[in-house]
């Protein structure tokens, strides 16, 4: 029987919810060494939310020491693969069993609709942990061809201590993208979640221990990037940093790796993804994909389809269809409302930044077709309506910069050659799409777009079998799929000579 959720249900659940904001180190909750805390403001209404430990170098040192001790002891690394698999699968089931609680924590932190948190974020987090748990007893070593006088065993071995730094837009999902493969490979992890979205990470760690993950294998330190994230990236006993976030911070992470112990780095960074629509396309499908691809999660998605490249002959018709889809299907409301499809932006400072970018775009000549305005201000929350700007050129700031808000830049083109040039005229290369009924053109075009993922006549469809990551300044290294495990391992050759 399907459960019916109402706003009253979630308000009642909120009143009974315990918000645990301490670090999780060595299998237990710990206050910051300094004793300092900070309080998150809830994006949905501007009220105080969770109070969290303000981690610093001292807390990172404790967490790394805990992770290193667990790794060196072999308490997880040397455990029988079948036993490790059972623990990971139990962890996934506990995530599902605590789905409503985790969804509430996610929504309080980031302002997205609680039903999206429950049905998308919690589900994909659990699926990710399960996917990599099921991989554990299916990872084989190799025997290299050497001839009869020797045998060379090529082993895939864990790196050691992984530092994971994750963003605030999809906290549980991206946590699972890092935790699943790194822990399945046998590593220990120190996770520094974004300061805006730490509550679900702490709960994930406690559920992991409840499932049987040994203490110290998964640690969480909360706090600000400069005070906790930077020390983690600089730490001499961390073997790798896996980071998802802005390109600007990604460049700093690479510098920290070089300044310290030349640790491995994997980066999933920003995007300004093109959605290209030719005049022969199914415009209804293209309109739905463009609206959902850009406006879902209030536009706070790294691969959001924020650049709509549309053949000039159908531009006006397509924009009207996007407006209709947005009005009928993409309801903006308080995150506890069952009707809400999108909710609040992450915080007031980000809302102000997005509004400032919109104003700058208009000064450059971008024309507002609809939306892209602050709304629901009476709630105290941070809401911007989905909007489209037209008559744009690819050199305008709204077409160049990653806005991370529900703002779509429509840029007309006349020829396929022009469309391809526009699509690739960006520093980013995370994703893209092409809409056309000409399959020769679809495949020709998709091959030429410089991006890690390209969709044909659809947008943002994927599963854990497909790798995710970018080209150019969208970073390197891949999350998801079996390939994600590779970056958390190294190859070790053991040579035996006979006679």
From TrEMBL:
One of its GO terms (molecular function) is aldehyde dehydrogenase [NAD(P)+] activity. Keywords: Metal-binding, NADP, Oxidation, Oxidoreductase, Potassium. Residues 34-494 form the Aldehyde dehydrogenase domain. It comes from the Bacteria. CDD domains: ALDH_GABALDH-PuuC (cd07112). The active site is at residue 268. InterPro entries: Ald_DH/histidinol_DH (IPR016161), Ald_DH_C (IPR016163), Ald_DH_CS_GLU (IPR029510), Ald_DH_N (IPR016162), Aldehyde_DH_dom (IPR015590). Belongs to the aldehyde dehydrogenase family. This is Gamma-glutamyl-gamma-aminobutyraldehyde dehydrogenase.
